[in-house]
Amino acid sequence: MSRRNQVLRNSHSEFERPGFVFRKEIASRGANLMLHCDDVPLPALAKRYGTPLYVYSATAVRQRLKAFEDAFRDVAHTICYSVKANSNLSILRLLAKSGCGFDVVSEGELERVRAAAPQTVSKIVFSGVGKSSGEINAALKAGILIFNVESESELSRLAECTEKLRKTARVALRVNPDVAADTHPYIATGLHKHKFGVPIASALALYARAAQAKYLKVAGVSVHIGSQITDVAPFEEAMIRLADLVRALRTQGQAIEYVDVGGGLGIDYRQARNDFAEYVGNYARAVTGPMRGLGIHLLLEPGRSILGPAGVLLTAVLYKKQNDGKRFVIVDAAMNDLIRPALYHAYHEIVAVVQTRNLSSQETVDVVGPVCESGDFFARDRELPEMEEGDLLAILDTGAYGMVLSSNYNSRPRAAEVLVSGKSVKVIRRREKVRDLYVAEL
Ligand SMILES: *Cc1c(COP(=O)(O)O)cnc(C)c1O
User: Tell me, what's the pLDDT at 355?
Assistant: First the structure.
């Protein structure tokens, strides 16, 4: 049994976390505890907007971003939120209002940022191992801050594009520091066997080449060692290697102004943490320590750590069934809405939204969706309060890498998304209609 469900059973108040809290609904006379997003009870959202529904707390997003800003306040830095974690325009707007720049990995993400917050273009970093000429040209014309270049071939391509457009590009090389981080193999990126970056040993020669290109301005070094890393030691290790590289480059006469730390700070999917500020503080110390005295401007690219715990996927129980003693709760969300369990064997905490029935009557169930794949599950052998058809469940910590990885598999229209701020609720993406599924087809 998970620790959080234990906590829930013993004391609801201990569940409290920014953005999502169990409390009594004032309007209802009963003593039911209901999960709220900010000041809004989730059952009201389900009733009004239907399920499955992604629900985000603006308060949680702001608080988490502020924790980051506070942790790095003593050093020159820009937070370039990683758009791929959650790219909804309203989320980007919210972050831009709080001062964020952005890390993009495609022309699509670049255009999302330009649509949501055109004034932040000068704070965009462009990452990615396979930027096409079209994408490079779009970013050059837009006037972004810096390109994180990942190979010699890409460097040549970028140089060509800048010459054609006669536009100068600031460049950093994304180096592969060859540090191991304990995370899922699909989201580890910092070892030489991964496709990302250039080996740190060949970086000096490449920088020398870059410096010769007429329209390239060497300005930084960058790194991203992977995602969902909860131990700060590998970040520190990578920064030690990067600091050495900065010194070596400066000896060669290269003007290195920026160090891009990448993203990757993990979250605790098993248990809500109330010590986020302390955790980010440790991360900040690990990252800034090796850079001390270098007069560097840090670029930070957090994604998951800002958005992950700020969202839940709200879903309703369609059916219950039992096959030879194995119990299933079939819900109306599926792997097309949230693929993390199927793709990464990710664990997500799941809670009953309304805590009515005797909480001692728990049962062990698989929570599964309607899609025709055995991989379509959200939890296996999970102990949950006994559910009935129509009951609501919240799949927690789905604000990052949830909606962005959704698809229309099984011709299922995508879920709606709402952003809650205090008492106010805004639909930030309408539910897809069946017709949306085939409008682009012949
Ligand atoms: C994915 C990615 C990020 C964000 O990672 P999180 O784990 O969400 O913080 C940052 N930078 C780059 C280059 C990435 O590919």
Answer: 87
Task: Give the pair of three-digit tokens for residue 33.
Answer: 């505890």
Q: What local confidence, expressed as pLDDT, does residue 10 receive?
A: 38
Tell me whether the CATH fold assigned to 3-57+309-437 matches the one assigned to 127-302.
no
* Domain locations along the chain: 3-57+309-437, 127-302
CA of 261 from ligand 1 middle (Å) equals: 10
**What CATH number labels 127-302?**
3.20.20.10
CB 245 within 8 A of CB 252: no
**What pLDDT is recorded for position 360?**
64
413, 34 in Cβ contact below 8 A?
no
E strands in 181-323: 198-199, 216-222, 258-260, 297-300, 311-323
Model pTM? 0.94
Arch. (CATH architecture) of 3-57+309-437: Beta Barrel (2.40)
Q: Give the residues surrounding ligand 1 with Cβ less than 6 Å away.
A: 82, 84-85, 103, 127, 224, 227, 262-265, 301-305, 400
Asked whether 95 and 61 are in contact (CB, 8 A), the reply is yes
User: Terminal CA-to-CA distance of the chain, rounded, Å?
Assistant: 50
The span from the CA of 191 to the CA of 109, in Å, is 26
Q: Is 119 helix (H, G, I), strand (E, B) or coil?
A: helix
Closest-lying ligand 1 atom to the alpha carbon of residue 401: 8
Query: Which tens digit of pLDDT belongs to each residue from 239-298?
Result: 999 999 999 999 999 999 999 999 999 999 998 777 899 999 999 999 999 999 999 999
- Quote the ligand 1 centre to 146 CA distance (angstroms): 16
Q: Quick one: pLDDT at residue 17? A: 63
**In the prediction, which pLDDT does 30 show?**
65
Residues of the chain with pLDDT under 50: 1-14
Query: Is 60:21 a contact under the CB 8 Å cutoff?
Result: no
Confirm whether 100 is a catalytic residue: no
- Atom of ligand 1 lying closest to residue 228 CA: 7
Give per-residue burial for 157-183: e unless 16+ CB within 10 Å, then b: bbbebbeeeeeebbbbbbbbbbbebeb
Q: Output the residue whose Cα is nearest ligand 1's atom 10.
A: 263
